[in-house]
Design brief:
This protein is α/β, with parallel strands linked by helices. Helix content is 25%, strand content 33%. It is built from five helices and ten strands. The strands form two sheets. It has an eight-stranded mixed beta sheet, sandwiched between helices. The chain is globular, with a radius of gyration of 15 Å.
Length: 161
């Protein structure tokens, strides 16, 4: 199974200057950790380079999308070439383990057609992000299956329409 998990602000923003723009959100971090631990995470180089993210993420198999793996040591594997084909192959080779696509937005947009479920955390506020998710496109492909609205974050689990 292939799933995506990301957090965004009220405008669909996901980052500013290559990192999360909002203050540390333990509720969201715990949700991310609980869902992705023990599974595969796939990310682009900007996500990998985020100064607030440990590299590699512990208790996960970390795969990095890049054509220059020598620049990014430490991943469990690298994806180069046809992104959709390679992620589908990775998921098929690891039955029983979820392949999570964790960012960035360019990788999300390229893989929307193969994502089975989308987990989205809405961090309240506008954080003047310079990178955004294609929210309108996501909403046309996915519908909300489950929602939890907490004080500092709203979680949505979405499935294909």
């Amino acid at each position: 199974m292939i799933k995506a998990i990301l957090a965004c602000d009220d405008t669909g923003g996901v980052s500013k200057d290559g990192t999360l723009p909002w203050p540390n959100n333990p509720t969201d971090l715990q949700w991310f950790k609980e869902n992705t631990a023990g599974h595969i995470v796939v990310m682009g180089s900007t996500t990998w380079k985020d100064p607030h993210m440990p590299r590699p993420l512990p208790n996960r198999q970390n795969y990095l999308v890049t054509s220059t793996p020598e620049k990014y040591p430490g991943a469990h594997g690298y994806i180069n070439g046809d992104l959709v084909t390679e992620i589908k192959k990775l998921a098929e080779e690891n039955p029983g383990i979820i392949t999570w696509i964790i960012g960035g937005p360019n990788i999300i947009e390229q893989t929307l057609g193969i994502i089975d479920e989308f987990y989205l955390s809405h961090i309240r506020g506008d954080f003047d992000c310079d990178t955004h998710l294609p929210i309108k496109k996501i909403e046309t492909i996915f519908k909300v299956k489950h929602e939890s609205d907490l004080m500092d974050v709203k979680f949505q689990v979405m499935e294909k329409r």
